[in-house]
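Discussion board: Methods & Data

I've been asked by a reviewer to show the raw model output for two of the constructs in my manuscript, not just the figures. I'm not sure how much to include, so I'm pasting the format here to get opinions. Each protein appears as its amino acid sequence followed by a line of discrete structure tokens. Is this the kind of thing reviewers expect to see in a supplement, or should I convert it first? Here is construct A:
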Amino acid sequence: DSRVYLLRDDDIVQITTDHSVVQELIAAGRLSPEEAENHPYGNVITRAVGPSDSVKPDYLRLEVVDGDRFVICSDGLTKELTDFGIRHFLEANPDPAAAVEAMMAAALENGGRDNITIVVLDVTRRAA
């Protein structure tokens, strides 16, 4: 129930795939993203790291560039803020800690119905 987002050049993209019943229904074309927002099985996950040795985590190789911003977050954030909202707080807060605080405050103000975990990671290239 966690996601990783990448903000690059003012575009935010979810770079992980949800492993949930709802995501599988969306992928199969049986549910629209709008219908998924309030689906009764929205919290039912289909894969989790830890309970079984047979579960294999996803791996993704991604080239990072100077200025990339990553958000690693639990569904407690994404239930309360849209991708647009996350992008807004990242763009409005250049400091990663300030971005986390702003998103946390907004998620709590919007209801805070689940645990909220947020990490903001900035990619900065050092001069050689």
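Construct B, same format:
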Amino acid sequence: MTDAQRDDARTPQVWTGHASNRFQWLLAGVGAACMALGIELAVDSAYTSGVAPLIMSVVGCIAAGLLVLFGTVAFTHVRVKVDRDGLQVRCGHIGVPRRSIPWHEINDAHLAPLVSPRHWGGWGYRWRPEQGTAVVVRRGPGVVIDLGNGRHFTVTVDDAEGAVRAIRTRLGLRP
């Protein structure tokens, strides 16, 4: 049995992984609190300055709360799947935002030992001209996908080494 056959036998047909960030739930709580404040102002307001300032306050609190709440809940976790179709990345509980990369677009993959939100400008779906696109939900190891033409896609995921091994095996490269 050759090394490639041994590696192929150890690599599953479908590889799945995930990463999560519990700190995002704290930020989601802040968003929920903003929404609650807006609702409280709308229901039990003693505003004497007029209707326009009250409406602006209520709408502002609810809008800010929704933005923070859904912007953070979407990135509490990420799921990554490597299968016969390519690489799929889904964020949050409803899987949005998502990204699918078919095999013909992937040239290579390698391990990034430390992906930091600080280097990408925060948590979430990020784009940096010099680094490419990333889904960063926590600090730690990740997978960097070489898409060709100098483009890269990075995702933080537990067992990033397993993801790299599965991708490189699928591409027929040495893991």
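Answer (T.O., handling editor elsewhere):
This is acceptable in a supplement if you add a one-line summary per construct. For B, something like: The two ends are 16 Å apart (CA to CA).
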